[in-house]
Amino acid sequence: MDQIVFNAPDDGHAIAQAAGTQFFYPGCISICRVRDGVRLGGVVFSGYTGESISIHMAGWTPHWGSRDMLFVVFDYPFNQLGVKRIFGQVPETNTRALEIDRKFGFRQVARVEGVYPHDVACIVMRMDREGCRFLGVKPRNVISNRTMN
Fold it and tell me: With 0-12 CB in 10 A as exposed, 13-18 as middle and 19+ as buried, what is 39?
């Protein structure tokens, strides 16, 4: 059975490394979907301002974003933290990540040149609470070892 694991430092570091960012504990929050001890995918949240937060996503299997996982991923920032929007930063060359973000409901709000190595631009993606379709999803089978406050 799948588990949704909150804030395990090893998961946070693995997700951050795969997403091309850093995981600083405390200060960042990780949510990882695990099956039989194997990471399927997850997110790291950072940069919480009260009004917004940044998300970094990574997956090791194509369908890591299950119904339950996506509910938890978006319930945490929007309902538990009360942010109004989530931002993602994606290298312009990572077309697969941009495609996934758009499928999740993010929209492009900016392009910043020279953010990544080899002068690759950063695409800033945004999701507003009102536009998050995953908040209306009823989770089916969420088992967690919630360790965050």
Answer: buried
Provide the sign of the torsion angle of the four alpha carbons 64, 70, 76, 82, taken in this order. Answer: positive
Q: Are 105 and 85 in contact (CB under 8 A)?
A: no
Q: Which structure tokens are listed for 22?
A: 């850093």
Q: Mind listing the pLDDT tens digit for each residue in 83-112?
A: 999 999 999 999 999 999 999 999 999 999
Report domain extents, the chain.
2-136
Helix (H) / strand (E) containing 101: helix 95-104
110-114: Cβ within 8 A, 24+ apart: none
Question: Which pTM does this prediction carry?
Answer: 0.89
Return the SS3 of 117: helix
Question: How much is the mean pLDDT over the chain?
Answer: 90
The CATH class given to the 2-136 domain equals alpha beta
